Amino acid sequence: MIDFRPLLFVIGILLTTIAVIMCLPAIADGAVDNPDWQVFAASALITLSLGICLILGNRSDDFRFTIHQAFLLTTLSWLVIALFGSLPFMFSNLDLSFTDAFFEAMSGITTTGSTVITGLDFAPPGILLWRALLQWLGGIGIIVMAIAVLPMLRVGGMQLFHMESSDTSDKVMPRAAQIASGIGLIYVSLTLICGGALWLSGMSGFQAIAHAMTTIATGGFSTSDDSVGHFNSATIDAIITCFMILGSMPFVLYLQAVRGNVRQLVTDSQVLWFLSIAFMAVATLTVWQWLGNDVAFLEALRYVSFNSVSLMTGTGYSTADFGLWGGFAVSLLFFLMVVGGCAGSTTCGIKIFRFQVIYATTKAQIERLMQPHGVFTPYYNRKPIPPDVSESVMGFFFLFALAFTVLALGLSFLGLDFLTSMSGAASAIANVGPGMGEVIGPAGTFATLPDSAKWLLSCGMLIGRLELYTVLILFAPSFWRG
After folding, report:
1. Rounded to 10 degrees, what is the CA torsion of 307, 310, 316, 319?
2. What is the phi/psi pair of residue 146, to 5°?
3. Do 450 and 420 contact (CB within 8 A), yes or no?
4. What span, in angstroms and rounded, lies between the C-alpha atoms of 54 and 100?
5. Model pLDDT for residues 230-241, shown as the tens digit of each residue
6. Is 451 a domain residue?
7. I need a labelling partner for 78 at 20 to 30 A (CA). Which of 132, 179, 346, 458 fits?
8. Nearest to 350 by CA among 433, 208, 210, 467
9. pTM for the whole thing?
10. pLDDT, tens digit, 9 for 90 and up, residues 191-211
11. Which value, to the nearest 10 degrees, does the dihedral of the CA atoms of residues 406, 218, 319, 330 take?
């Protein structure tokens, strides 16, 4: 039997933390005399009470987590935070149903960025801040999970970084706690720098910090229905593009750079692949817009670079309706949606390193076919790739495709059109935010979808954010038999 006491204890700590953070939007609403401050205060009180009860009722001096408990805790943590994070949405003046409130909270904590809320330009500051805080917390949460949890659970090839992180961690800082605090400090610093740059570029202080949190978290929640396009500023577009890219880099490499080893950040193969794919996509689509759609070159470069990077990193901001760019552009952007950024960053999607592993494994297999007696070993970052990593990555690709297919078919079964079903499934499982088409594209929202579709998409967000295996393994009967 699985011992649930350690799980409930940790969940109690998470709920207590969430309750304290809920006080920030309560203060923001109170400062402008908006009655929603009472909603946040009551939600914080409920969350805090349950959190303290879980802590006091399950504390122990000898907690040891097993693999089963780690899988279960990872999924439960995101579910519980989404559940209690939905309370302010449900009881505020937005008057959202439980389905819409849970969808919004799940979209926030998974840094997806899909929304059912309209009229953001006139929404109270507490709700806007709470949306940004959920994504900011989800961003740092996924970094910690990618560095500390997923390598241990050997999910989708992440064990590759168990070796690398243990090697580099000894060189960067002596203890795991220091690594976590170091990454947290870098995360906060990047947020503040981004916020300061946006403030100097014309945003208000509140808009700047809200967008800074959702930019570094590659989440995409904005303070306007028109997203970043509301500001119509090339400077703001450039700043957010740069920080979306920074949020997509492995944060462990930032630690090494701070300690003096900048070379690793600029020579890491995953970083180089990510930048190369982004550059080629931006260059291709810029030429397409310039020559094919008769858009001025600099204007095409501005809008293409922002929206391409936004989709590839899973941020989901938009400054233009890219669905109107033509079939080729939509197809390429659809591919970018599932690519994602680097492992150990705030981004989502398949992740660059998995494409590298598949490429190296395929290349070695082709060489073996041409020279059957030769010995060919696939490499990643100049190190041999263990066979179990290649198997895990190939299994992840298959499971990703299967989950995407099931989601798309499920949405089609519920009455959604082909483009909405396909792009909605990709957006959810890759945690991107906007889809394609008139309904859930950059100019639309998910509000008009049926409740059953929103629950299906919420499941897709959770599965995609936690790297598929972490959630789906809980449905295996052998998991519960130990």
Report:
1. -30
2. -70, -30
3. no
4. 27
5. 999 999 999 999
6. yes
7. 179
8. 467
9. 0.92
10. 999 999 999 999 999 999 999
11. -30
The H or E element that residue 380 is part of is strand 379-380
- Specify the number of domains making up the chain: 1
Q: Which two tokens stand for residue 215?
A: 């930019």
State pLDDT tens for residues 289-336: 999 999 999 999 999 999 999 999 999 999 998 988 988 999 999 999
Q: What range does the domain containing 298 cover?
A: 264-481
Q: Is residue 375 part of a domain?
A: yes
Residue 61: band (very low, low, confident or very high) from pLDDT cuts 50, 70, 90: low
Contact residues for 75 (Cβ-Cβ < 8 A; gap 6+) = 462, 466, 470, 471, 474
Token representation of residue 139: 């961003």
- CA–CA distance, 303 with 306 (Å, rounded to integer): 5
Torsion sign across C-alpha atoms 301, 304, 309, 312: negative
Q: What are the angstrom distances between the C-alpha of 318 and each of 44, 411, 413?
A: 32, 24, 29
Q: Name the one residue in this structure whose structure tokens are 């000894």.
A: 170
Q: Looking at the domain assignment, is residue 390 inside a domain? A: yes
Q: What is the dihedral of CA 249, 252, 256, 257, to 10 degrees?
A: 30
Locus of tokens 């002596």: 174
Angle of helix 176-200 versus helix 251-258 axis, rounded to 10: 90
